[in-house]
Amino acid sequence: MTVTCYIIDDEPLVIKLLEGYVRKTPFLELAGSSSNPVKALEDILKNTPDLIFLDIQMPELNGLDFSRMVGDRSKIIFTTAFEQYAVESYRLNALDYLMKPIPYSDFLNAAEKALVAKSNKTDASPVESIFVKSDYKLKKVEIKDIQYIEGLKDYVKIHLEGKAEPVTSLMSLKGMEELLPADKFMRVHRSFIVNIDKVKVIERNRIVFGKEYIPISDSLKGEFIKALSKNAIIYK
């Protein structure tokens, strides 16, 4: 599945950076870019890209007003150097809010939300893989192979079935949680998300994956057991 996107920013260097990010992201396709929001609005109302990377502070027409004019035609990811617009952006149902300077890892995380949103909107086949930045490369991770994800401050470790070494990526556990199908993955602890289909053994309030033990928080235990019981009979 491809997500078409449009870049709007009054800074040419930012446009150039984001165009480079789009080219290196396999599922994105650049539909256009502009430093003139009025001209860009004409293009977008005519061609309707899936996603817009949209600056907020621009002359003639700011990004917040621009977003209101576009409505629900396209998903919006705001790009700005000013934190004070965050609340208003989420009131407008923005998909994400990226702070400049924008690292590629944040860009990719936001773009994958657009991919998931498009998949859900079109009732297409569910997303089967994600691309994460690891060791300065983009690595494809098959969702069905994920056993669990471990959050470690500013990065995550993605543990895969049959693989001795996890895939490490600079992103938050919350960001990873938003990319994964909610009916298959669940947070069981503030530092762990598990693939429910991969859970085979639970011992003393811990999930066992080989030699690894994943703790289950008391506050999340009820929801976890409920999720397990959807596809299995739990004998107590």
Give a quick set of tags describing it.
236 residues; alpha/beta; five-stranded parallel beta sheet; five-stranded antiparallel beta sheet; 7 helices; 15 strands; 32% strand
Count the DSSP helices. 7
Low-confidence stretches: none
Q: Over all CA atoms, what is the radius of gyration?
A: 20 Å
Order of helices and strands: EHEHEHEHEHEEEEEHEEEEEH
Spatial gap, N to C terminus: 44 Å
Strand order of the largest sheet: 2-1-3-4-5
**Largest pleated sheet:** 5 strands, parallel
Q: Quick one: overall form?
A: elongated
**Overall pLDDT score:** 87
> How many β-strands, per DSSP?
15
Structural class: alpha/beta
| DSSP helix fraction | 25-40%
Proportion of residues in extended strands: 25-35%
Pfam families: LytTR (PF04397), Response_reg (PF00072)
Organism: Candidatus Caccoplasma merdipullorum
Domain Response regulatory: 4-115
Protein name: Response regulator transcription factor
Report on the architecture of this protein.
There is one protein chain. Helices cover 31% and strands 32% of the residues. It has a five-stranded parallel sheet, with helices on both faces. The protein is built from seven helices and 15 strands. The model has no long low-confidence stretch (mean pLDDT 87). Strand 9 (155-160) and strand 10 form a beta hairpin. The chain is α/β, with parallel strands linked by helices and 236 residues long. Residues 130-204 form the HTH LytTR-type domain. It comes from Candidatus Caccoplasma merdipullorum. The modification 4-aspartylphosphate is found at residue 55.
